[in-house]
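Retro notes (design track)

What went well: tokenization of the new backbones is finally stable.
What didn't: we kept losing track of which sequence belonged to which structure.
Fix going forward: every design gets posted as structure first, then sequence, in one message. First example under the new rule, 407 residues:
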């Protein structure tokens, strides 16, 4: 079957993670995504290694694993659009595209005539999505934005890590570039909404997505806790500000997670742990009381959890209907039978003569499933193909562009 977006063509001028992540989602859903890269160097993340993808002989290639995470199902086209001829090629491609993704600094593409106003005049149906650190307006609009600094500026690091008064306390970034990923997701939602609106209006629109906006929006309950109290939440390590017990606990052979969501689950936890009296204690019988008496309850539970292994606790608590789980490293994640059953690892043949291991899309569509057409491309791998198919250029014309350093 055709993918849900198999009728859509995307010109992806973005680099690094947030924009490419959006492009990959659209590509997984069937869109034809043409990734435009700088001749000779390409996307910055092609060089963010080690580790690197292995070639057919098992040696490191020059293709960083980082790049592979956000660029499958795309075609790589190299164009130097700082040159007038390169700009002309982009404008000609835009005439036959539905979506353009870019993450240049505010106003960065206007100098080349590749801004929204210029390209919308060529193709009124174009959806033009700009991903920036701070958005198209406001006092920080001209600043560059990277995930790490946005996690700090946007408040996430004030909530992540151990409390300041504990050993090892202090702000900590999330272990993946979560703000970039979330921004890519929001950019995808914006593009899909604009495509849907175009079905009614017949015209495209501009989509402005900023890392800082997304980071603040995704503070979720923590933002609401602040807005309703005027008190900025503090770091709680792995504990939850609104639910107790909802954190990690020590076991006989490591640590595991208990995630009690209601009073009934707390009673079941106490019964399994041999601490039934705690469920009847007025300090702990309701979640409101447990939040107020967190400092008294948690040590009592920790004294009990250390006497069984993680696997024993998980088995017992699952049988009782208490949400719980281990704290896996990535080797354990990809060895997990449920992860394997859901097909979350895929391997795609690449142009190096080997295969590239990848994480599958989590989207499961019954009528138009995600398809995996090709591994992340080599730099410029599809340049000739795209120029022939989309712009009907001859071999001689392509050779001349290459000789001039345009492609």
């Amino acid at each position: 079957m055709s993918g849900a977006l198999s009728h859509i063509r995307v010109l992806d001028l973005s680099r690094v993670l947030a924009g490419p992540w959006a492009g990959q989602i659209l590509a997984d859903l069937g869109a034809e995504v043409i990734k435009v890269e700088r001749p000779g160097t390409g996307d910055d993340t092609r060089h963010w290694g080690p580790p690197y993808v292995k070639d057919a002989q098992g040696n490191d290639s020059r293709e960083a694993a980082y790049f592979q995470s956000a660029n499958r199902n795309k075609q790589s086209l190299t164009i130097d659009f700082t040159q007038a001829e390169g700009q002309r090629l982009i404008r000609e491609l835009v005439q036959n595209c539905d979506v353009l993704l870019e993450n240049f600094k505010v106003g960065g593409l206007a100098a080349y005539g590749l801004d929204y106003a210029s390209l919308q005049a060529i193709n009124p149906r174009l959806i033009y999505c700009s991903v920036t650190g701070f958005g198209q307006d406001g006092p920080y609009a001209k600043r560059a934005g990277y995930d790490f600094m946005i996690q700090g500026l946007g408040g996430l690091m004030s909530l992540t890590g151990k409390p300041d008064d504990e050993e090892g306390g202090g702000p900590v970034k999330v272990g993946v570039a979560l703000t970039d990923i979330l921004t890519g997701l929001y950019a995808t939602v914006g593009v899909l909404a604009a495509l849907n609106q175009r079905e009614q209006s017949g015209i495209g629109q501009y989509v402005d997505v900023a890392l800082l906006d997304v980071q603040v929006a995704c503070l979720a309950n923590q933002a609401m806790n602040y807005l309703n109290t005027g008190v900025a939440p503090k770091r709680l390590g792995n504990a939850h500000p609104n639910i107790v017990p909802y954190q990690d606990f020590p076991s006989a052979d490591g640590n595991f997670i208990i995630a009690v969501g209601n009073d009934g689950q707390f009673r079941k936890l106490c019964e399994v742990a041999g601490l039934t009296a705690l469920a009847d204690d007025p300090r702990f019988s309701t979640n409101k009381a447990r939040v107020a008496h967190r400092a008294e309850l948690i040590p009592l539970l920790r004294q009990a959890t250390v006497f069984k292994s993680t696997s024993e606790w998980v088995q017992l608590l699952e049988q009782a209907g208490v949400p719980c789980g281990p704290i896996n490293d990535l080797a354990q994640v990809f060895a997990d039978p449920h992860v394997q059953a859901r097909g979350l690892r895929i391997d795609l043949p690449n142009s190096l003569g080997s295969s590239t291991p990848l994480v599958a899309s989590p989207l499961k569509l019954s009528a138009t499933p995600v398809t995996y057409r090709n591994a992340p491309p080599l730099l410029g791998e599809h340049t000739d193909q795209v120029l022939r198919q989309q712009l009907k250029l001859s071999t001689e014309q392509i050779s001349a562009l290459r000789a001039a350093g345009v492609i």
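Added context from the reviewer: The mean pLDDT is 96.
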